[in-house]
């Protein structure tokens, strides 16, 4: 019992810094509606800046002073990011900023690498709090107790700020209707910057406060972001008390999990989140997101037009070029092209549900990797012939999508995105931790195609036929009545339902179809590489696809495909550089700010302008 | 005080205002009349810069507002009460008023919470209630009170009589007259001619985004054909 209580205290102490980071994210989302993926980066910056300051400033005052200064510094960095990166794109489609924040992650990662180097830093112990206190005979670190004691004051200070001050009233009003707040004479730009700075400062404090328990390393940003999102979603986006309860819940469960069920640790919080969201779709203390409540953001969607003759000729010419490629290209280029087509099909399947369905999935890699694993497992364990195993990839991914979709489709917006993320994390941890079957991070190897496809050229044509075929099927479906119904459900679910469209069922079917196509891409992938590893199921893999779709352009059909081509080539080039993340991040941010319609959308705009039709420019 | 000169405003490709011009003098109460979709609300939003006129000028106290952010328009002394009220439903009455609060302004009537509670006694009783638990009429009063907290010189009231009970409409008319007696300049948009005549000194009729009539109610009565052509009575 005493041991259990000590465990509980450890969980509470861990919850403190998690709560700080999560409350910052929740605040930022509540007011700006930005899902700030870079929030983990501010946490990491907090840790690194904290370590540096603690080395400079000695003693008690130095330690706590360093923590205080760290928050202010990270807050200032946050304000800078908000003004430079986010301010120009508030009018862009709601989830577009997400990609920009992803660019910020990459930039901060490399900047941190440049400044602090690749070595992990051990956090200094808090002066005067090095030892343990015995509670019911169990040793509990003094620092843990101090943190547990501090946290309620932080919660109270935040609560006071939000509920009892003018700034808090304005923040809450802006959460609901920022345009009206502006019309009443409040400069929202500064309100947004202020909230972003405060949120970032909280993340920075979280990073600095955990130093004596942990340290600073370059993986902290991704390691915490999953947990932070889980906490915010379980608590309810925008709810501070919710974030606190969820942080305690997750941290305590985690500590208990480590002790009693070590293999559960990676999934535990995602299972909790999935359960909470299935029972309470808007989190414990969250409130329903009403569509259109925040006013129309950005320009209205233009209908998708079929290609003109020029467009069709271009596509045909491109296909002919691809078909003729083996005549003059070397093996290296063909392999790059196979990668590109695989990625294009994967991106096109995500684009299908995201662009046409309006469903932003953060976990699409589950189906790509799921398909790849399904085929690989059959080959690896039962020596199934490649032809049969390959068919199993889209089939298994489709079934997986049916299962996951059944839970996720009932949610909307950010909650949908987070639940898909949770499920993909579940799939990932299965692949990672169920070693007897999947061999964990050793991966499944020696998954080669049948002899007739083993050459690069035959496999290239195999890829081309299935990859392009899959993309064309998706394109065809978007132009079918099913596609119309899907888009109707995206633009106005209520009106679509009033017209007799079962929106949820259409979305469910689209989600499953996207899963099939992603699985197909995964199948082609696994036999081209001969192996599959859990990395194909990681959050980063899902984000790659998201970035590609946004870069290419959400509102254009070719967006996913063009974005995939761009990204494959860009990564191929950039990864040769030492600080390629920095460059890629800056490119992403630049595209988002300069060409918010993506590559294809911007090209189209340029094209219409060149032809002298003013129609688009009027928008 | 306010001079709107030849503004053209668009929603996407649809041209809603086609070269609209009018003037409002200090201390006047003017009614913008016209049917649904005539462009009354767009006119108000174009003054507030919530819709940006593509051409034309909106001069307020000799400064052109076109292109300024909405908060600057509000700070220059124009209060806006939107048609759909847009009160903050999760905030209490007191908090809603707090959002609207701005420092007092030279040449404009000054309002305190207590004075506003005198004018809108219902709000005083419900000061700690959240916006979502209030009736349509109470929400309408709250949105006006919230805007008055900014001590505006000019008040834009978009369809104040819409969707509220007849008894409250009468109260609303009295309130507007009270505001006028305090020295406030008011522009209301209305479909209800009876209500407009009760509170306004002058009528401007808009149809298809153009001005069709500008004059006193006596003149309007002398020309029933104008009323029949542009107003649904």
Automatic annotation (TrEMBL), chain A:
<dbReference type="GO" id="GO:0015658">
    <property type="term" value="F:branched-chain amino acid transmembrane transporter activity"/>
</dbReference>
<feature type="transmembrane region" description="Helical">
    <location>
        <begin position="25"/>
        <end position="51"/>
    </location>
</feature>
<feature type="transmembrane region" description="Helical">
    <location>
        <begin position="360"/>
        <end position="381"/>
    </location>
</feature>
<feature type="transmembrane region" description="Helical">
    <location>
        <begin position="63"/>
        <end position="89"/>
    </location>
</feature>
<keyword id="KW-0029">Amino-acid transport</keyword>
<feature type="transmembrane region" description="Helical">
    <location>
        <begin position="332"/>
        <end position="354"/>
    </location>
</feature>
<dbReference type="GO" id="GO:0006865">
    <property type="term" value="P:amino acid transport"/>
</dbReference>
<comment type="similarity">
    <text>Belongs to the binding-protein-dependent transport system permease family. LivHM subfamily.</text>
</comment>
<keyword id="KW-1003">Cell membrane</keyword>
<feature type="transmembrane region" description="Helical">
    <location>
        <begin position="243"/>
        <end position="261"/>
    </location>
</feature>
<feature type="transmembrane region" description="Helical">
    <location>
        <begin position="304"/>
        <end position="325"/>
    </location>
</feature>
<feature type="transmembrane region" description="Helical">
    <location>
        <begin position="143"/>
        <end position="162"/>
    </location>
</feature>
<feature type="transmembrane region" description="Helical">
    <location>
        <begin position="579"/>
        <end position="600"/>
    </location>
</feature>
<protein>
    <submittedName>
        <fullName>Branched-chain amino acid ABC transporter permease</fullName>
    </submittedName>
</protein>
<keyword id="KW-0472">Membrane</keyword>
<dbReference type="InterPro" id="IPR043428">
    <property type="entry name" value="LivM-like"/>
</dbReference>
<feature type="transmembrane region" description="Helical">
    <location>
        <begin position="95"/>
        <end position="116"/>
    </location>
</feature>
<feature type="transmembrane region" description="Helical">
    <location>
        <begin position="413"/>
        <end position="432"/>
    </location>
</feature>
<dbReference type="InterPro" id="IPR052157">
    <property type="entry name" value="BCAA_transport_permease"/>
</dbReference>
<feature type="transmembrane region" description="Helical">
    <location>
        <begin position="506"/>
        <end position="527"/>
    </location>
</feature>
<feature type="transmembrane region" description="Helical">
    <location>
        <begin position="266"/>
        <end position="284"/>
    </location>
</feature>
<keyword id="KW-0813">Transport</keyword>
UniProtKB/TrEMBL annotation, chain B:
<dbReference type="GO" id="GO:0005524">
    <property type="term" value="F:ATP binding"/>
</dbReference>
<dbReference type="InterPro" id="IPR003439">
    <property type="entry name" value="ABC_transporter-like_ATP-bd"/>
</dbReference>
<comment type="similarity">
    <text>Belongs to the ABC transporter superfamily.</text>
</comment>
<dbReference type="Pfam" id="PF00005">
    <property type="entry name" value="ABC_tran"/>
</dbReference>
<dbReference type="InterPro" id="IPR052156">
    <property type="entry name" value="BCAA_Transport_ATP-bd_LivF"/>
</dbReference>
<keyword id="KW-0547">Nucleotide-binding</keyword>
<dbReference type="InterPro" id="IPR017871">
    <property type="entry name" value="ABC_transporter-like_CS"/>
</dbReference>
<dbReference type="GO" id="GO:0015807">
    <property type="term" value="P:L-amino acid transport"/>
</dbReference>
<keyword id="KW-0029">Amino-acid transport</keyword>
<dbReference type="GO" id="GO:0015658">
    <property type="term" value="F:branched-chain amino acid transmembrane transporter activity"/>
</dbReference>
<dbReference type="InterPro" id="IPR027417">
    <property type="entry name" value="P-loop_NTPase"/>
</dbReference>
<dbReference type="InterPro" id="IPR003593">
    <property type="entry name" value="AAA+_ATPase"/>
</dbReference>
<protein>
    <submittedName>
        <fullName>ABC transporter ATP-binding protein</fullName>
    </submittedName>
</protein>
<feature type="domain" description="ABC transporter">
    <location>
        <begin position="2"/>
        <end position="233"/>
    </location>
</feature>
<keyword id="KW-0067">ATP-binding</keyword>
<keyword id="KW-0813">Transport</keyword>
<dbReference type="GO" id="GO:0016887">
    <property type="term" value="F:ATP hydrolysis activity"/>
</dbReference>
């Amino acid at each position: 019992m005493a041991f259990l209580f000590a465990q509980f205290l450890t969980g509470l102490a861990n919850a403190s810094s998690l709560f700080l980071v999560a409350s910052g994210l929740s605040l930022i989302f509540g007011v700006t509606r930005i899902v700030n993926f870079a929030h983990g980066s501010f946490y990491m910056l907090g840790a690194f800046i904290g370590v540096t300051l603690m080395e400079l400033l000695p003693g008690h005052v130095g330690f706590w002073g360093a923590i205080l200064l760290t928050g202010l510094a990270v807050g200032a960095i946050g304000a800078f990011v908000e003004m430079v990166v986010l301010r120009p794109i508030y009018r862009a489609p709601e989830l577009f900023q997400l990609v920009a924040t992803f660019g910020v992650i990459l930039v901060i990662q490399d900047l941190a690498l440049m400044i602090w180097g690749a070595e992990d830093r051990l956090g200094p112990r808090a002066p005067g709090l090095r030892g343990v206190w015995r509670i019911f005979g169990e040793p509990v670190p003094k620092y843990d107790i101090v943190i547990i004691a501090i946290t309620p004051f932080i919660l109270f200070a935040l609560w006071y700020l939000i509920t009892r001050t003018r700034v808090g009233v304005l923040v809450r009003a802006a959460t609901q209707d920022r345009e009206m707040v502006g019309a009443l004479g409040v400069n929202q730009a500064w309100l947004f910057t202020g909230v972003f700075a405060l949120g970032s400062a909280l993340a920075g404090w979280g990073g600095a406060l955990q130093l004596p328990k942990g340290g600073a390393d370059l993986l902290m940003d991704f390691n915490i972001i999953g947990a932070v999102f889980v906490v915010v979603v379980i608590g309810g986006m925008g709810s501070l008390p919710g974030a606190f309860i969820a942080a305690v819940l997750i941290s305590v469960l985690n500590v208990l999990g480590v002790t009693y069920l070590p293999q559960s640790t990676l999934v535990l919080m995602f299972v909790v989140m999935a359960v909470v969201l299935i029972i309470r779709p808007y989190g414990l203390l969250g409130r329903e997101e009403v569509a259109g409540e925040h006013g129309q953001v950005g320009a209205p969607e233009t209908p998708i037009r079929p290609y003109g003759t020029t467009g069709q000729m271009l596509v045909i010419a491109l296909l002919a070029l691809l078909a003729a490629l083996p005549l003059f290209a070397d093996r290296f280029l063909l392999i790059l092209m196979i990668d590109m087509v695989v990625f294009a099909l994967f991106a096109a399947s995500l684009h299908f549900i995201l662009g046409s369905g309006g469903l932003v999935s953060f976990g699409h890699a589950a189906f790509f990797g799921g398909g790849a694993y399904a085929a690989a497992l059959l080959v690896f364990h039962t020596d199934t012939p490649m032809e049969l195993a390959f068919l199993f990839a889209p089939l298994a991914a489709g079934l997986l999508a049916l299962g996951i979709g059944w839970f996720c489709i009932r949610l909307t917006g950010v909650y949908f995105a987070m639940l898909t993320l949770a499920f993909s994390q579940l799939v990932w941890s299965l692949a990672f931790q169920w070693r007897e079957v999947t061999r964990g991070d050793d991966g499944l190897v020696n998954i080669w195609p049948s002899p007739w496809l083993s050459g690069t050229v035959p496999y290239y044509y195999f890829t081309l036929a299935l990859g392009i075929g899959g993309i064309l099927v998706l394109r065809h479906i978007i132009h079918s009545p099913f596609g119309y119904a899907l888009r109707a459900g995206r633009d106005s679910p209520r009106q679509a339902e009033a017209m007799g469209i079962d929106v949820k069922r259409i979305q469910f079917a689209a989600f499953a179809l996207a899963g099939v196509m992603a699985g197909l891409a995964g199948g082609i992938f696994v036999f081209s590489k001969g192996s599959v590893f859990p990395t194909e199921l990681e959050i980063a893999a899902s984000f790659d696809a998201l970035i590609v779709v946004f870069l290419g352009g959400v509102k254009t059909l070719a967006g996913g495909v063009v974005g995939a081509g761009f990204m494959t080539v860009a990564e191929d080039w950039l990864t040769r550089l030492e600080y390629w993340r920095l460059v890629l991040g800056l490119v992403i941010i630049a595209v988002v700010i300069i060409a918010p319609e993506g590559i294809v959308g911007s090209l189209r705009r340029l094209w219409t302008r060149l032809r002298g039709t003013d129609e688009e420019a009027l928008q | 005080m306010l001079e709107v000169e030849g503004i053209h405003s668009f929603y996407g490709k649809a041209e809603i205002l086609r070269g609209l011009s009018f003037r409002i003098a200090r201390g006047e109460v003017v009614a913008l009349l016209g049917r649904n979709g005539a462009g009354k609300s767009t006119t108000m939003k174009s003054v507030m810069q919530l819709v940006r006129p593509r051409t034309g000028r909106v001069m307020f106290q000799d400064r052109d507002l076109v292109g300024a952010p909405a908060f600057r328009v509000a700070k220059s002394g124009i209060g806006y009460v939107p048609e759909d009220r847009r009160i903050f439903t999760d905030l209490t009455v007191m908090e809603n008023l707090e959002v609207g609060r701005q420092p007092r302004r030279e040449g404009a009537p000054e309002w305190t919470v207590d004075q506003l509670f005198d004018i809108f006694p219902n709000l005083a009783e419900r000061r700690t209630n959240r916006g979502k638990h209030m009736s349509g009429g109470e929400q309408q009063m709250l949105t006006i009170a919230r805007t008055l907290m900014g001590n505006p010189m000019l008040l834009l009231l978009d369809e104040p009589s819409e969707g509220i009970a007849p008894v409250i409409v009468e109260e609303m008319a009295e309130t507007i007259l009270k505001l006028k007696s305090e020295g406030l300049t008011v522009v209301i948009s209305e479909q209800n001619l009876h209500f407009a005549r009760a509170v306004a000194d002058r009528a401007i009729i808009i149809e298809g985004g153009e001005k069709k009539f500008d004059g006193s109610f006596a003149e309007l009565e002398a020309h029933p054909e104008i009323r029949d052509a542009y107003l649904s009575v």
